[in-house]
Backbone:
């Protein structure tokens, strides 16, 4: 029973460690949309979704513009095929760092005199949602979201490079590959 609890605790720790350092990306799309017809896009504000800091707002839009240009889309100020908007949510989550001390007989087969110590900290986790709406029908045709831990202490250039990587991964599946 004790070994089972320790293994469950170890599995939970490994899961939290993986979540704290990775990024998670999802997307969904309207299967009836004709993505080949979309050539232009225009940025729009989603009520309650804009970042209050204009520097972050420009960085997010610039990183998305770079990726969308590679997809063959052109940014325009009016008469677009698609409206694009984003939302950002920052959650503060608890992180748990654990380590084992002491030695005991049996190594990993038996814990012997080992003790597990831990430390908790709060880490910011950012969620970026990108929505693409067909202008003509005013319907959502593609949505992607990325979840990543944020290191607010990094310099702005490193943060922008990380944003570019996240945006590339996020928009990797636009346009979606539709299987027939």
Residues:
């Amino acid at each position: 029973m004790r070994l089972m609890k320790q293994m469950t605790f170890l599995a939970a720790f490994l899961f939290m460690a993986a979540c704290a350092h990775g990024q998670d990306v999802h997307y969904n799309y309207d299967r009836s949309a004709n993505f080949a017809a979309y050539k232009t896009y225009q940025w729009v504000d989603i009520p309650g979704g804009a970042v209050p800091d204009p520097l972050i707002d420009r960085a997010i839009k610039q990183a998305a513009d770079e990726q969308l240009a590679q997809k063959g889309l052109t940014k325009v100020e009016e008469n677009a095929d698609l409206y694009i908007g984003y939302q950002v949510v920052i959650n503060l989550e608890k992180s748990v760092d654990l380590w084992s001390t002491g030695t005991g007989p049996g190594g990993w087969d038996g814990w012997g005199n080992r003790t597990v110590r831990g430390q908790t900290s709060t880490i910011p986790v950012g969620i970026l949602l990108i929505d693409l709406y067909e202008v003509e029908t005013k319907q959502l045709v593609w949505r992607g979201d990325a979840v990543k831990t944020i290191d607010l202490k990094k310099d702005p250039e490193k943060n922008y490079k990380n944003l570019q990587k996240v945006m590339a991964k996020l928009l990797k599946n636009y346009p979606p590959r539709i299987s027939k």
Notes: The chain has a mean pLDDT of 78. DSSP finds three helices and six strands in the chain. Residues 42 and 76 are 5 Å apart (CA to CA). The chain has one domain: 2-173.
